[in-house]
Amino acid sequence: MNETRYITTSNKADHLFNRSVAWLAKHGVSLMGTRLLGVRGRKSGELRSTPVNLMYFEGERYLISPRGHTQWVRNLRVAGEGQLVLGRRTETFRAIELTDEEKPPLLRFYLKKWAWEVGRFFEGVDKNSPDEVVRGIAPGVPAFRITAD
Known about the structure:
Layout: H1 12-26, E1 34-40, E2 47-57, E3 60-64, H2 71-79, E4 81-86, E5 89-97, H3 104-118, H4 131-137, E6 143-148
Antiparallel strand pairs: 1-2, 1-4, 2-3, 3-6, 4-5, 5-6
């Protein structure tokens, strides 16, 4: 995996699943941490949204992009902040992108919790993969620590 890795949602099942999860989050129902992420477009300035899994790890909160360097990742890098929505609650946050060296324990935890949903995007890597394999995928899986604004 590399720093240009980007897996698009190309099938109807993915689109339907994402739309359903987004609808639930918008109406206050979280599936294992789901939130609706809002980030300003880096070119348009318009608020864009997508469902994400908010991960809690060792007292901190994180967003991981299992599909790689997606549009929301590129927008968040430029904006440096975003919103997490669950029902009527909207939280503004700041994002700090993690280095590849910081990611392995987070990726392992993410795979432990959400492999049933996103494991196929990790191309054979799972929570039990050797450390060097998990380190090897880090450049292709962006991760952000988020803090309250």
